[in-house]
Amino acid sequence: EFGITRPKGYTVSYHANPEMEKHHFGQTHPMKPWRLTLTKSLVSAYGMPFAMDNYNTRAATYEELNSFHASDYLDYLASAPAEDMPRDIDNPDKEVRFNLGGSDCPLFHGLYDYCSMSAGGSLDAARKICNKQSDIAIAWGGGLHHAKRSEASGFCYINDIVVAVLQLLRCFPRVLYIDIDVHHGDGVEEAFFSTDRVMTVSFHKYAPEIFFPGTGGLDDNGPKSEHNPGAHHAINVPLNDGITDEQYEHLFQTIIGKINEVFRPSAIALQCGADSLAGDRLGRFNLQVQGHAACVEFCKRLNIPMIMFGGGGYTPRNVARAWAFETSIAIDAHKKIDPIIPQHTPWRERFIHDTLFPTLEQILGEPRANRNTQKRLQEIVQHVHEQLRFVTH
Length: 393
Ligand code: VJV
Ligand code: CA
Ligand code: ZN
Hints:
8-stranded parallel β-sheet, binds ligand VJV, binds calcium ion, 32% helix, alpha/beta, 11 helices
């Protein structure tokens, strides 16, 4: 109907599981797995599944999760009883193990299934890339970048990205991890602190004490201990409120273009957190779908096998817009896509505006003040270039 066909010369796979989307973190918790249903409904309404290999995500096994996570943490995660009330606000004295059961990381019904399905999708995506059955693999249910080996953090329990990158490292010498979520990708950065086979790059709002998680300053480039091969392989791009498409795209292309030349990755893991969009319930930037998606398009043009993960995103209609449009970029259909959301899209009224590309005025009323000066952005580029002088192989 929309003339969307398979891309020529390469294969895209889409990994999802409708069961995952039925889980709830709690009534007013910002993380809504349902945004994945809204994304899928747009992707399908545009006819995109015809252009991809579609896989129903399985749950990752205990052994697979154990490739990164500690056994005692996984055992507790699998057995901890669900709680109907998060504790840390109402009952701050109660013991919280592994940071589980507070208001950020509540113990909800089916938690272990939800986590293992998220990781299963990301791991399947990595396997398809490894065995060359896919050139781009999409796992919007993954991207949970804050989880640590033995700790939940910031709505993330299992670090599906680390599990997937460990799989990629079995078949590729070097993996570039890129994170455009508004938060710092601390869990992934820390997991690969001591290897030069993974370079991590996160763009994020940075304001320690005020904005989660508080790490990811410009000088945070991996521990500079004497014989750490991972030194200089963590790149951080700390930003202020209100950054625009134009500034972000320029920064992204300059930095990722340079990293591609120097590090020469054999695979890319791209975390596409959509909380960096304007109007996000937790985010602070002024990015539009076009600017966010331009980052995905730039990565795709590098012609390197790639996994696209989800991540944050707390205004579901905008998350669905971005991830559906980015899916169309993956299959090279973005120029054919009608910006008017198809009439037959389920939950079409939830989008409020009938376009994939609402203006900043439509999203926000009035835009958030931009606190990023050109001078500061230049300093960031300068610092990154200096770090990259240490990177050789
Ligand atoms: O800022 C924090 C930590 C606190 C303690 C817990 N209170 C609720 C908030 C302050 C220091 N946490 C952040 C976590 C952000 C995680 C982002 C995850 C991702 O996008 O990077 C990847 C998926 C935070 N910011 C906002 C909230 N938590 C928040 C949590 C809630 C909430 C409202 C805001 C939890 C429950 C409810 N409302 C009902
Ligand atoms: Ca980020
Ligand atoms: Zn986030």
